[in-house]
Amino acid sequence: MRGQLVSTGTTITIIVGLIIAAFYLRYMWAALQQTVQTRDEPDEGVDRYHFGLVGAVISVFASSAAIAAYGLGAAFLYAGPLLALLSAVAVARCLYQEVEK
Amino acid sequence: MSKVVLAANPLLQPVQGIATEILLGVVLLALVYYIKRNLVSSTKDFVIANRKIGFGYGVAGLISIWTWAMAVMMSSAMTYSYGLSGLFWFTVPNGLAVIAVIPFARKVRSLMPNGYTIPEFVRARFEGTKLAVGVVILGALFGSLIEVIINIKGTALVAYNVFGLDPKVAALTGLVVVLIYSILGGLWASVSTSTLATLLHSVPSAVIIVAALSYAGGAGAVWSAVSEQGQGLLSVTRADAATGFGITLALGLLTATIAGQEFWQVAWALKKKDVSRTFLWAGAWFYPIPICLGVLGLVGLALHVDVNKQLGGDAAAIGPYLISHLGLPLWIVILYAVVILSACYSVIDSAFTAISSVFVVDIVKPLVPNIRERSLFVWAKIPMAIAAVIAVAIVLSGVDFVTIVLTSYAIRTAILIPLVLSLFWKRMTGAGFVWGTIAAIAIGMPIRSVYGELWGSVAILSISAVIPLVAGLLGRETFDFDRLKRVDDATQSSRAPALSPSAVRVTS
Questions:
Q1: Is residue A87 part of a domain?
Q2: Can you tell me whether residue B307 is helix, strand or coil?
Q3: Which residues contact B41 (CB under 8 A, 6 or more apart)?
Q4: How many Cβ atoms are within 10 Å of A22's Cβ, its own excluded?
Q5: How many domains does chain A have?
Q6: Which of B56, B133, B146, B252 makes a 20 to 30 Å CA pair with B235?
Q7: Could you tell me the maximum CA-CA distance found in chain A, to the nearest angstrom?
Q8: Is B96's CB within 8 Å of A60's CB?
Q9: Are B148 and B393 in contact (CB under 8 A)?
Q10: Is A21 among the domain residues?
Q11: Nearest-by-Cβ selection for B222 from A10, A47, A77
Q12: Is B232 on the interface with A (CB under 8 A)?
C-alpha cells in the first residue's frame, strides 16, 4: 500500500480529466436548459446526414488500429486513456453543438 | 513485475459499497428531479421524451445505454483470455452494432414518424396478424427484463469483488435506486442520467488505467511481460478469438441493437434531423471506453493472475480483482466501482423505459383505447415496478434464468430479418413474418443446443430469412408504406393505432 498518492502521469491525467469534465458538465447543463426552453417548439427538421457509411468505415478502422497499436510498444498502452479522454471531449462537443444551434 | 504484490485492500469495507451505490443514486436522482419538474408532464414525455432528444444528449445517452456493466468488465476479460485479439473481437463489433442501426432508425422514423415500439410497428405493418404482435411483445419484454437481470448481477459482482458486499444486498440496493429515478422521469431520466454516466465511463476510466499501469510496474514492464509470453497475445490476428466468441458475439450484438426496443425508442425520441448522426457518433465514441479498460486484461496477463485460484474461475472478475488488489488508493478503487455502477444503472433505466413503452402502447392502449391521459401516465410507471420485482426475485432466489435468456435470444434473433424485410420490402407478408419467426425458433433452437451458438444463430437467421422471402415472392400482396405515416400517436389519440384494410392491396 502506497497510501493515497499517485504518479505524475496519473496526476496529469486527473487534471486534464477535471478540465474536460468541467466543460462537459457546463455544456450538458446548457443543453438541458435549452431543451427546457424549447420544449414546446415543433420539430420540423429533416434527417439529411449522408456520412453514415464513411463514418462507420473510419470509426471501425480507427478503433481496430488503436487496438493493434497496443502491440507495437509500451507507450501505446497510453493510447486507451488518451482516447477515453477524447471520447469525453467529443461528446462535450456534441452537447455544445446542441446549444450552439 | 516480480515486485508487484497482489493483496486485498484492507481499507475496503462493504459499507463503502452500499454508500457508493446510494450516493451515485442520489446524484442521479437530483438530476432527474430537475428533469421531472421541467420536462416530464405527460405519458408522451415519459415514454418517448416528446421526441425532443437533441444531438448531444442522444450521443451521450446511447453510449451509456450500450455500455453494459458486463461490457466494461468483459473488455478486460476478453483481453485477459485472448490477448489483443480478444479485445479486437469484443470491441469492434460492439461499436459497429450501434452504427448499423442508422439505416433502420432513419427508415422507421421516416415511415412511421409517430411510432413508439417495435410491436406497434409490426401491428401497423401486418394489421390483423395478432400472433406476430404477440411474439414481438414477448421478445421485447423478455429482452428488456434480461438486461435488467444481467446488469443487476453486474452490480452485485463488482460490489462483492471490490467491497466484499453481500451480492444480494448490492443487487437490491441498486435496483431500488434505479427504480426510484426511472419512475420519476421515464425516458428523459434514462437519457439525462446516461449522459452523466458517459462522462463517468470515460474520464475516470482514463485515470484508472494510467494509475493501474503505474501500480503494476509501469507500461514498459506490463508490455514486456505480456510480450515474453508469446502466444500472439499482442496480436489482433489470433483465429481462436474469432471462433471462440467473436463471430457469435458480433451476430448477437447486431440482433440486440437492430431488434432492440431500447434503440428503436431512442430512434423515435430523437429530433428528426439528428437521428443518423447521433447513432454514428455514439457508435464511434463508444469505442474508446472498452479500448481503454481492455488494458486491465494486459495487466492481468503481465501479473500472471490465475483465473481459477484468484478469480474463482470467472475471467470477468479480472478488472475488479486487479483494481482491488493492486494497492491502488481507495478513491481510485471507488472511482472504478462508480464506472461499473453507472454502466449498470444506465442500462437498467433504459430497459425499464422500454418495458414501460411496450406495456403502455402495445398492451394497455389496445385493451383500453379511450383511457384517460392521467391514467395512462400512471400505467406507464407500473410495469417498471413489476419488472424490478421480477428481476430482484430471480436474483435473490438464485434461480436459473437460462430459460428467459434463451427465450429472449431466440425471439430477438428470429425476428431480426423479418423485421428488416418489413421495413424495406413491400411484399413482406404477415404470414411470412409469423411462420418465418416460429419455424426459425422451432428448428434453430434445437440446432443451437446440439451444434452450439454459432450454428444455432446461423440456422435461425437463415430460416427466418428464407420463409418470408418465399412467402412474399409467391404471394401477390404489396404494402403501401405511406399508410404507416398516418398511424396515430398512441399516447395522444383516444383511438388505438389502426390502419384501414386498404393498407394492403393485392396486385394482379
A1: yes
A2: coil
A3: none
A4: 11
A5: 1
A6: B252
A7: 59
A8: yes
A9: no
A10: yes
A11: A77
A12: no
CB–CB contact B272 A46 (8 Å): yes
- A47 part of a folded domain: no
Q: What is the pLDDT of residues B5-42, one digit of tens each?
A: 888 888 889 999 999 999 999 999 999 999 999 999 99
Task: Inform me whether the pLDDT recorded for B496 exceeds 70.
Answer: no
Which residues 437-466 on chain B approach chain A with CB closer than 8 angstroms? none
Measured on CA atoms in the order B36, B41, B42, B45, is the torsion positive or negative? Answer: negative
Quote the CA–CA distance of B174 and B185 in Å, as a whole number: 17
Top CATH class of B16-417 equals mainly alpha
**What count of residues does chain B have?**
508
Count of C-beta atoms within a 10 Å radius of residue B119: 25
Q: Where are the domains of chain B?
A: 16-417
Other C-beta atoms closer than 10 Å to the C-beta of A54 total 10
Strand extents, DSSP E, B259-311? none
How far is the C-alpha of B297 from the C-alpha of B295, rounded, in Å? 5
**Cα–Cα distance between B147 and B153 in angstroms, integer?**
10
Residues of chain A with Cβ-Cβ distance to B298 below 8 Å are: 70, 77
Query: Would you state the cell numbers that stand for residue B438, as one nine-digit string?
Result: 416460429
Residue B66, pLDDT > 60, answer yes
Instruction: Give the tens place of pLDDT for each residue, B115-131.
Output: 999 999 999 999 878 88
CB contacts, 8 Å: B219 with chain A = 74-75, 77-78
Position A26 in a domain: yes
The range of the structural domain enclosing residue A60 comes to: 8-38+52-100
**B153, B370 Cβ separation under 8 angstroms:** no
Q: Which residue's C-alpha cell is 456534441?
A: A94
Interface probe with B: pick from A70, A76, A78, most Cβ of B within 10 Å: A70
Q: Measured between alpha carbons, how far apart are the two ends of chain B, in Å?
A: 76
C-beta atoms of B95 and A60 within 8 A: yes
Cell of B135: 411474439
